[in-house]
Design the sequence.
């Protein structure tokens, strides 16, 4: 006969489960490293595509295009085309996009502060496992 | 002859570029939706694997295993095996892991607050594009 041990699980309120899913969907978008960097460079003001390419080191043309399109779709970035010669297209944060600056800056500061701790932990872990 | 237009780019201080890369590497890890959820459920105290599975809706056994292993490697979560019968393995946040609770909570609160705005922006964008 099989013995089943029942472990009591503290129940989460329903709203927590709901928030978890909502959070997950949006985090998939805003927690993305290129999104964070785009919001970071646009926090100082509107920029053109090539300016962003240069300011964000290591981003490909394709990846920046996809990231900007997603941010535009989410209502976090606007794309404005000016009928000048040559034509000029500028990207800027919306109010909702600007409200992301603070939470992403907090996460960014955490990453900068804890990077040495993480690097050391990884080195130690890899020594133990190998 | 080709005409080159030079656009003056405001120079970022070197540390910004450096921080951008450091941030990117770590964001790839901590901005991940399952990482955020694991830190979230462990913020209330240590848990066993199956408890976490139940509290985080929709996470697969494999994904939770991989997420916990990465968090352990990064020094953000500990895995403690107790020599009881049956054996018991508990996961808990380290001090560094606990310091992630606040920034991730800020991002989580942002996601919950702005979810309706994002949902509406997406619906409007998709109407325009189709």
Sequence:
């Amino acid at each position: 006969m099989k013995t089943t041990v029942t472990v009591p699980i503290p129940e989460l309120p329903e709203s927590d489960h709901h928030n978890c899913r909502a959070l997950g969907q949006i985090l998939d978008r805003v927690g993305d490293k290129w999104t964070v960097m785009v919001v970071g460079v646009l926090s100082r003001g509107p920029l053109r595509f090539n300016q962003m390419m240069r300011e964000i080191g290591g981003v490909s043309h394709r990846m920046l295009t996809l990231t900007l399109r997603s941010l535009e779709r989410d209502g976090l970035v606007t794309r404005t085309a000016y009928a000048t010669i040559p034509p000029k297209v500028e990207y800027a944060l919306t109010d909702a996009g600007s409200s992301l600056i603070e939470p992403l800056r907090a996460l960014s500061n955490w990453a900068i502060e804890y990077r040495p701790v993480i690097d050391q932990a990884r080195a130690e872990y890899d020594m133990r496992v190998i």
Remarks:
- Residues 37 and 67 of chain A are 10 Å apart (CA to CA).
- Chain A has one domain: 16-129.
- Strands of chain A lie at 47-48, 77-82, 88-93.
